[in-house]
Amino acid sequence: MLDPIQDMKTNNPKMYWFIVSWLNTAYKTPNWDGYDDYDEWRVKAKSIGIDCSGFARIMQDQIFDKTIRGGSRGLLTNYCIPTNRDDLTLGDLVFFKAPGSTTGN
User: Fold this and answer.
1) Is residue 105's pLDDT more than 60?
2) Are 74 and 80 in contact (CB under 8 A)?
3) Which of 38, 79, 72 shows the shortest CA–CA distance to 58?
4) What are 66-70's contacts with CB under 8 Å, separation 24+?
5) Which residues, other chains included, contact 105 with Cβ-Cβ below 8 Å and sequence gap of 6+?
6) Opening angle at CA 76, ends 3 and 82, nearest 5
7) CA-CA distance, 103 to 66, in Å (whole number)?
8) What Cα–Cα distance (Å) separates residue 55 from each residue in 16, 66, 81?
């Protein structure tokens, strides 16, 4: 399971251990009450669950020192700008339109 990120263990250990610390966490929209005390909040969140936009939010905050808020649509609307694939850097969030999607994004 960790093969795709194995090189991070030596190249970017902070991100590697952040990702590993959230493995096997249930999928659920998190309760953000108490997030200001991240270490205590994380213990509760790991036992309750986290969704993908919540995981992106805390990774941006804890690893990249960037503050973002909202679900996937809010992240796309409020924080994203179109970028060429060649210009992507570590920490960029990538959104794509799924084949057959009827939404405008």
Assistant:
1) no
2) no
3) 38
4) 66/91
5) 73, 76, 77, 95, 97
6) 85
7) 28
8) 14, 13, 20
Report d(CA 24, CA 28) in Å as an integer.
Answer: 12
The model carries a pTM of: 0.77
- Of 90, 102, 95, which is closest to residue 18 (Cα–Cα)? 90
DSSP 47: H
- The tokens for 11 are 């190249």
Output the six-digit token pair for 1: 């399971």
Element at 14 (helix H, strand E): helix 13-21
- Give residue-wise pLDDT tens across range 79-88: 888 889 999 9
